Amino acid sequence: MARKKILFIVGDFVEDYEVMVPFQALAAVGHEVFAVCPGKKAGDTVKTAIHDFEGDQTYSEKPGHNFSLNFDFERVKTENFDALVIPGGRAPEYLRLNQRVLEIVREFFKAQKPVASICHGPQILVSAGVLKGRSSTSYPAVGPDVADSGCAFVPANDTASNSVIDGNLVTAPAWPAHPAWIRDFLKVLGTKIEL
Closest by alpha carbon to 108, among 76, 133, 135? Predict the structure, then answer.
């Protein structure tokens, strides 16, 4: 298996499971995983939030962990990375206002490198203008934005456990989809795991 360098773009109040689980899973299979946040450096942390589905009209939010960054945002050069992951939570809501974040996303798409995004992460993809003519899913409340971007929106299934692959892009509606979207992202990365 060819070891890949995978970049995560995160920010304060990124969804806890949507950053912790894929970061650790991708590292566990042998990839090098780097997490960055605008305005922060390696060794700094971002606060995470735990979103849960408890029967309310929307998800609940609880404090999560402090997630350690291991690379400087200012040092990101997309040619040095093989793939990009954009987790969800509240971070994408404001990260999409950062022009360098949008440039990085566009550079990954222009180079046709693998990109994975989950939950509210597609808000960044919409703002970067990379979804037109593609298929994607997202958290249901982000669906209208995804559809308005010219993308074929694929709704979440009843358990929010589905994943959508469109070429180099893998998306999922929320953390219950981890088994599907991490498996699909590993396929797009060309990662083979022997059991």
Answer: 76
